[in-house]
Prior knowledge:
about 150 residues; mainly alpha; two-stranded parallel sheet; two-stranded antiparallel sheet; 5 helices
Amino acid sequence: MVRGLxxxxxINACIGIEDLSIKDIGKRFLNNVKGYSIIIEGLFxxxxxxxxxxxxxxxxxxxxxxxxxxxxxxxxxxNTNVRWxxxxxxxxxxxxxxxCLSSIFYLKDGKISGDYDKTKIxxxxxxxxIFTLNIYDGANKTQYKK
Length: 146
């Protein structure tokens, strides 16, 4: 029988990458939305008010990035006063993708550290296939030859 393993976000906590915790990503999301707010206002005519920042501030400790992105999407779309076009849809998805990816992988001074506690890695050598959702593996720098 073939054995497979699916690794998700929990592996980051298990191996000790603190910067990938829900709380830390959420804090960066909040700061990034503040930084992108001028772009959002310019593209969609939507000013992000302090009440929204407070609302997100109450949520980021327990909500994942997908939920936070959805809240931002709904806020922008529901507060725009123009007819929503396909181009607006593409723009909002691009902006929110930038906010989210920056929030996950970058600190103010650059990329998050990929350092982790190697002793906490589960025994993955027992599996034939390993699949990941989103894991940072900075240690795998092997150059493969053709």
